[in-house]
Amino acid sequence: MSSNLTSSNNNLSAGVSHWVDQIAWGADGLVPVIAQEIGSKDILMFAWMNPEALQKTAELGRAVYFSRSRQKLWFKGEESGHIQRVHEIRLDCDNDVVLLSVTQEGHIPSIACHTGRHSCFYQSLEGLDGSKALAWSSVDPVLKDPKSIYQ
Hints:
Blueprint: H1 5-8, H2 16-21, E1 31-37, E2 43-49, H3 51-60, E3 64-67, E4 72-75, E5 84-91, E6 98-104, E7 123-126, E8 135-138, H4 146-149
Parallel strand pairs: 1-6
Antiparallel strand pairs: 1-2, 3-4, 5-6, 7-8
């Protein structure tokens, strides 16, 4: 897929149902989505999409998710300004997980997590080598205070 999804998908309506129907949607009508940063290959976040969110993502070239708590589409960055430009959309071998290759925009260094961190995966299980009791530890810094991101 091109880095400009919008121009490469000018006429999505002709084939929308075909490619969207190939997704193995869950019983709740959702599919899990992983957002991976294109340059660093960092896994930034995990979210959910419904068919409309996936179609909008392909049409707009920016990540649109489905918020389970709010039961509506969530345009990544609509409040924070930390949008995700989508370069590629991949589907796993079982057609039940979507991988987005994205450029995280809105802050340098990039912030994808609502905690103000680069990635939502900032906690590491320490002690796997047996040197101490197993415990979660924050290993990535807060880049921006979440209170200043979300008003």
